[in-house]
Design brief:
The protein is built from seven helices and no strands. By secondary structure, it is an all-alpha fold. Helix 2 crosses helix 4 and helix 4 packs antiparallel against helix 5. The mean pLDDT is about 95.
Length: about 180
């Protein structure tokens, strides 16, 4: 159930800032939510998470941004959603540790940065289609990468860390109560 909650948080982190006109913050729980969901669910259950985020993309494009919706504009993003779920299932599904989660966070944010900006460079006329144009596109996106890396680290840290912290506290409390029993 917590995995579905992580996807709900990811969806709401994309929709609610627009409802409250706080989009300048640049925080999204998508990367962390997908990592947690993918680690907790089997491979085929990535489909509901991807569908929920696809629906969010459609909603935001049509009703918040008031743009025309073209599936081709989102194929790379939707592929990335599925890839992160499958990656998390493979890397974090059996064993989680601080280093594994930190590596997954870095890989998730970096892969989105590389793929999305490559698509912007190749599919628009915002930058010249040269090596210098590609470099300019990536340089311009560094602040967005920093925001994504921080928000992915925060949400993944919370999703993976809070249950581990709760288990440790519960174990310490049990241990403390057992130590106080009369012999």
């Amino acid at each position: 159930m917590a995995a579905y909650f992580a996807i709900l948080v990811a969806v709401l982190s994309r929709i609610l800032p627009h409802a409250f006109q706080t989009t300048s913050v640049g925080f999204t729980a998508v990367g962390g939510g997908l990592l947690y969901y993918g680690a907790r669910r089997n491979r085929w259950q990535a489909i509901p998470a991807v569908l929920a985020l696809m629906a969010t993309d459609v909603y935001l494009t049509l009703f918040v941004y008031n743009y025309a919706f073209h599936v081709s504009d989102y194929l790379v993003t939707w592929f990335w959603y599925a890839a992160v779920c499958l990656f998390a299932h493979q890397v974090l599904g059996r064993k989680q540790s601080f280093l594994r989660v930190a590596g997954a966070v870095l890989a998730t944010s970096t892969s989105f940065f590389i793929l999305s900006d490559l698509v912007v460079w190749a599919g628009s006329n915002m930058y010249p289609h040269t090596a210098a144009g590609l470099l300019a596109c990536y340089v311009a996106a560094i602040p967005f990468y920093a925001n994504d890396l921080m928000s992915t680290a925060i949400t993944a840290g919370a999703f993976f860390g809070l249950p581990a912290l709760a288990r440790d506290i519960a174990a310490n409390l049990r241990e403390g109560f057992e130590g106080q029993r009369p012999a």
